[in-house]
Every structure is written in structure tokens, then in C-alpha cells.
Amino acid sequence: MYRYFIIIAIIILILITKAYIKINSPFWSTMPVYNTYNILFWFGGPREINNAPPEKDKWCNDKDIIVKKFAISHLKKKIYLLILSKNII
User: Fold this and answer.
1) Cα within 13 Å of Cα(3), Cβ side
2) pLDDT in tens, 25-69
3) Which three-class secondary structure state does DSSP give residue 25?
């Protein structure tokens, strides 16, 4: 009998936590990033990377994106790559 109450309490706690996160941070609750409160990520996380452009919603604004190209010397590029390769986990 107590097992059922414990299981129901855990399920209710998970649902309340998910609702709290959805209400307080709607942007981050929809992002596919690792969060310690997301139980599904504890068991392996997502198995695919979506390379398609994001779907249009209130968080996606592709009209105001400005891409600027700049020239960089070959030596500086090597230095930047070396720094990145040594300092990225």
C-alpha cells in the first residue's frame, strides 16, 4: 500500500517540477540542452542532432540576423585553433 503512495508521490513531484520549469522559463524548457532536472537526460540523453533549421516560433527571429565576414591571416587562424584545441574539454 505504501509503495503505491510513494510511486504516486514521485510522479506528482515530477509533474509539479516540470510545470514549474515550463512556467518560470518557457524558453529554456523547450531547448535541447542538458539540464540536471531533466530525468530523460540521466538515462542517455537525445540520440540525434537535428541539422534542420529551427521551426518558426516566438523565439526564432531570422529576419534580424546579420552575418559579417572578416579576413583573418593564416597564422592567426593557426594560433586560434591551437588555443581552442588545448582549452576545450
Assistant:
1) 0
2) 888 777 766 666 666 677 765 566 667 776 777 777 777 778 788
3) coil
Instruction: Tally the residues of the chain.
Output: 89
- Residue linked to cell 540521466: 42
Question: CA–CA separation, 38 vs 31, rounded Å?
Answer: 11
Q: Where are the domains of the chain?
A: 2-46+58-87
pTM equals 0.46
Q: Are 46 and 32 in contact (CB under 8 A)?
A: yes
CA distances from 7 to 2, 20, 51 (A): 9, 20, 38
Distance CA 18, CA 39 (A): 10
